[in-house]
Design brief:
Two copies of one chain form a homodimer.
Chain A lengths: L4 E2 L1 H8 L3 H9 L6 E2 L6 E4 H15 L4 H8 L8 H35 L5 H12 L1 H9 L4 H7 L4 H21 L7 H17 L5 H8 L6 H17 L6 H25 L1
Antiparallel strand pairs in A: 1-3, 2-3
Helix pairs in contact in A: 3-4, 5-6, 9-10
The structure holds a DNA duplex (30 and 30 nucleotides).
DNA sequence: ATATCACCTCACGTAACGTTAGGCGCAATA
DNA sequence: TATTGCGCCTAACGTTACGTGAGGTGATAT
């Protein structure tokens, strides 16, 4: 005949949970074992082991102890158990997605940092924020940019993403170094050349005109303009710029200078 | 010229975090904005926004605020940042694996419950525990069972798993219903027939002899016997039986009776 | 004069335990 | 026999990252 009862430490050992946890479950009325009338010690029986397994199982499914307590009352087990499982499922799926996004961001960042030795904090944060909000960013863009253009708006393959990010890194570095130089300085021109070539390559576009085209929203439409404004605001909120205001101002100046002929071209067409 | 400073509520709105969170970060010395000397109100500047983005980014990577605080001191950012990222990565991978196991268990359980209307708690818990510890179970078995046999020991495909679990469900139901009946009762024989057919099918075995073979460990080897004993104990700890002691005793009796000729056969061979 | 606002500082509540801290009865040991 | 140690008990604080009031202040709007 097997031993019928366990002391708390025996029970803990044989089930793998801590004594404190058993105390806690008792206190919270989730698993209340009998007591030795004389000593007051907890006395666990086989039935308690079954109950504890039930608890552990539900916990494994991600339920809170409060939820579990409900399900520990007999008769209530399978009433809406499937519903509860479905709910847990969607929660877990969400968690998993978050983790996957974080994992990808980490892996991409590690890769980036392995090659580049010295990376600016601000740039790194900006990149990470961009990765973090990749999905949201695309969703926001959906309302504002044509569907066909969407595919070209963001790098698609993992490789493209990494190439793009690496290029972005050097671009930002260049901006910081060259900031203040005149727009027609050869290095500045080189920088912008590199940058737009990067975009053309990783975003699978055919020409700079195409980029310009995507960004030329219907500005006559007043309502649309508001949406575009809100869109840009939201993106700015999600993804901080790694540049100072001076750097941004300078960049805009040299970019306008660089793009000048192109924009004029566009204007002339309309 | 843009506005340079923000009140706490403005700052909260424009960054998307709560006022309370900002209070908290201030209190914990993670993000301490300047104060208005007169009113004592917090005054956030653009630099603070950059810092907050850094915080949010690191939080997104799964770091604790304590860890983040370390990285908020300048100069310490990229010292061992890659190492930290790697550490986070392995943590996240672990979490993800747990979630995946739970998700699979949930999905299989939901599937099971959709078809069977009335399922016993104990059986369900046992099944869930089995799913939960599938990996551990296999690892434990590795030390004890030959590698070639391992592949046959557990159902391999998702479909096989589901068929197996469904069969197990009806098997347990039968045991409860038939418990007490004589070993030569036709329904009992039917039950065992069904069960072993299930095993043969889902475990891809050719004969009952093969099953018997797998389980016939080297019992002469004293040391091995101990390991087998420990193995069985651990399995029992991980996966509770859904049967009462009576049911188990009865099952063992009728099984011995059913397997009788087979075992005799084995004995005679040696 | 008063109501409202935006801000402030406490300070408690949350989940699921981990971790002392102090006390009781029983057994082995010096 | 006194002490030590073991296993058990209860009580209570610590943990994380905030949410949610409670109560008070100065400035503005009615």
């Amino acid at each position: 005949m097997k031993k019928e009862t366990f002391s708390i430490s025996e029970f803990a050992k044989s089930t793998g949970v801590s004594v404190r946890t058993l105390h806690y479950y008792d206190e919270k009325k989730i698993l209340k074992p009998k007591r030795d009338k004389i000593t007051g010690h907890r006395v666990y029986e086989k039935e308690d082991m079954i109950q504890l397994h039930k608890i552990m199982t539900l916990k494994f499914l991600g339920m809170s102890l409060d939820d579990i307590k409900e399900y520990m009352q007999p008769n209530t087990f399978d009433l809406n158990f499937v519903d509860t499982l479905r709910l847990q499922e969607s929660k877990l799926i969400k968690d998993k997605e978050q983790i996957e996004i974080a994992l990808e961001a980490i892996q991409r960042t590690v890769h980036l940092l392995e090659n580049e030795k010295e990376v600016d904090h601000a740039v790194l944060v900006s990149l990470l924020a961009s990765m973090q909000n990749e999905k949201k960013q695309q969703e926001l863009s959906k309302g504002i940019i044509k569907d066909e253009a969407m595919k070209k708006m963001f790098p698609q393959t993992a490789k493209d993403k990494m190439v793009f990010e690496k290029g972005l890194l050097t671009f930002y570095k260049n901006v910081r170094e060259l900031c203040g130089k005149p727009a027609d300085h050869p290095e500045v021109k080189q920088m912008l050349d590199d940058f737009y070539r990067l975009i053309l390559e990783t975003l699978d576009m055919d020409s700079l005109e195409e980029i310009a085209d995507i960004f030329s929203f219907n500005m006559e439409d007043k309502e649309n303009e508001e949406r575009v404004e809100a869109y840009i605001q939201e993106i700015e909120r999600l993804i901080p710029t790694p540049l100072t205001e001076q750097e941004e101002a300078w960049l805009e100046k040299v970019t306008t200078n660089y793009m000048g002929p192109l924009w004029d071209d566009e204007e002339r067409k309309n």
